[in-house]
UniProtKB/TrEMBL annotation:
Single annotated GO MF: flavin adenine dinucleotide binding
Domain Acyl-CoA oxidase/dehydrogenase middle: residue ranges: 128-220
Superkingdom of origin organism: Bacteria
Residues in Acyl-CoA dehydrogenase/oxidase C-terminal domain copies: 232-379
Entry protein name: glutaryl-CoA dehydrogenase (ETF)
Family under the similarity heading: Belongs to the acyl-CoA dehydrogenase family.
Length: 397
């Protein structure tokens, strides 16, 4: 890994080995084909079981449920390596690990855990996470129209979800819906249930090597055993987002490494006015900014992993790292594209693909501006999100 401050020395030998193995595997199996998959808007489904074999799916979960019992940094370096190839690959694994396996592990019954987690870890089952609805994903509470009505021993779910990663690949969907008391509850919904439909979203100009869908639930009947019994309220889905945002904070740096190294190599080999463009101050300034942002972001991500393993992680700390690392990667990808000149607009190089992907990454899992407002609320105790959002105690006054 590009590692200006030797952060690798802070990783354990096991974490370094996982990263090396992930890089070898992805360079052999994904890198040579990724531009074609992206151009053809194809997700490489043949890799799902391989991801399972490599331990990319739910690595932090205990071994008894199919995980590796691995550290937070292990999940971090796996996310880094996946996103160094493409944000769509990291997205697949983020959703499976943090948004499907995590809620089942944290809030599921013992029976749900034993039934689903090992199959999800092996990639035999694929899951998706339905929180966002069409009217405004930043405010999932006020905008949640999906309802769960109790009917005897069943629940009946009605509503729709928008922008759902893996929607058309999934065997199960974690659906967040409001019950008759207005509480947000989570359900494990088999996607072959009567009344469940996934409509693939086409014509995306970003995250093309990833499946994104609308989910429609028309009176979908599930037994009460499909309810995640361990959580009520918005903190259920938001706590899953904390896990996924942690992975994104690492993953974005993988994309930043990819565009930085591509731009550096190009700058050394491209000559204008009698010398390589790498000798020009304007080009060097862009490369230095990328390297500095990567270095600071990696220190942030590493410290976050420590806090996570120690059980001290605060959601606002994850917001800061997701916000800043993703925006740094997006800015770096734009700068790399610029250094590549005209070549930078083709898929023969990776920078524009990363740049377009990172527009999504900057938006999903809480937009850049929403994380600014989460942090603003944490720092000042004043809530600038809006009237329906609660005030928060100031953390750092
Ligand atoms: P708020 O009052 O702040 O919180 C409600 C309850 O939740 C708790 N909480 C959290 N718990 C754990 N982790 C977090 N990150 C948490 N944030 C809040 C909070 O303590 C409270 O608990 P309690 O016990 O007091 O009830 O609620 P709010 O309505 O004011 O929320 C505001 C805000 C902005 C924080 C929240 O709505 C938000 O995060 N919005 C952004 C939504 C978002 O990120 N959506 C992502 C959808 S999934 C996705 O994009 C997947 S892409 C995956 C891929 O392809 O990689
Ligand atoms: P909106 O919430 O409507 O926001 C529009 C704009 O208004 C943004 O710029 C936002 O920052 C700004 N804004 C909103 N509120 C405020 C405010 N209070 N103050 C200032 N500015 C504000 N969701 C899932 O549940 N599961 C998934 O698997 C999933 N995968 C996704 C995959 C892709 C490719 C994409 C694009 C999205 C995915 N999402 C998923 C949804 C994603 O989380 C939402 O797009 C995101 O949360 C933003 O919601 P929105 O698009 O409705 O924008």
């Amino acid at each position: 890994m590009f590692d200006f401050y030797q952060v690798s020395d802070l990783l354990s030998p096991e974490e370094r080995e996982v990263q090396r193995a992930a890089r070898r595997f992805l360079e052999a199996e994904a890198l040579p084909h990724i531009a074609k998959w992206w151009e053809e808007a194809e997700f490489p489904t043949h890799l799902i079981r391989r991801f399972g074999e490599m331990g990319f799916l739910g690595p932090s979960l205990p071994t008894e449920y199919g995980g590796l019992g691995a550290s937070a940094a292990t999940y971090g370096v796996v996310s880094y390596e996946l996103e160094r190839i493409d944000s769509g690959l990291r997205s697949f694994c983020s959703v499976q690990s943090s948004l499907v396996m995590y809620p089942i592990w944290a809030y599921g019954s013992e029976e749900q855990k034993r039934f689903y987690l090992p199959k999800l870890a092996r990639g035999e089952l694929v899951g998706c996470f339905g929180l966002t609805e069409a009217d405004g994903g930043s405010d999932p509470d006020s905008n949640m129209k999906t309802r769960a009505r109790r009917d005897g021993d069943d629940y009946v779910l009605s509503g729709s979800k928008m922008w759902i990663t893996n929607g058309n690949l999934a065997h199960i969907a974690i659906i967040w819906a409001k019950d008759e008391e207005g509480e947000v509850r989570g359900f494990i919904v088999p996607t072959d249930s009567k009344g469940f439909r996934a409509n693939k979203i086409h014509h995306k100009a970003s995250l093309r090597a990833s499946v994104t869908s609308e989910l429609v639930l028309e009176e979908v009947r599930v037994p009460k055993s499909a309810l995640l019994p361990g959580v009520k309220g918005l903190k259920g889905p938001l706590s899953c987002l904390t896990q996924a945002r942690f992975g994104i904070a690492w993953g974005a740096l993988g994309a930043l490494e990819a565009v930085y190294t591509e731009a550096l190599e190009f700058a050394k080999s491209r000559s204008t006015f009698g010398a390589p463009i790498a000798r020009r101050q304007l080009v060097q300034e862009k490369l230095v900014r990328m390297a500095a942002d990567h270095t600071k972001g990696l220190l942030l991500a590493w410290r976050l992993a420590q806090l996570k393993d120690q059980g001290k992680l605060k959601p606002a700390q994850v917001s800061l790292a997701k916000r800043d690392n993703v925006r740094a990667a997006l800015n770096g990808a734009r700068a790399a594209r610029e250094i590549l000149g005209g070549s930078g607009i083709t898929l023969e190089y990776h920078s524009i693909r990363h740049m377009l992907n990172l527009e999504t990454v900057d938006t999903y899992e809480g937009t850049h501006d929403i994380h600014t407002l989460i942090l603003g609320r944490e720092l000042t105790g004043e809530n600038a999100l809006g009237e329906s959002s609660k005030p928060k105690e100031a953390a750092l006054r």
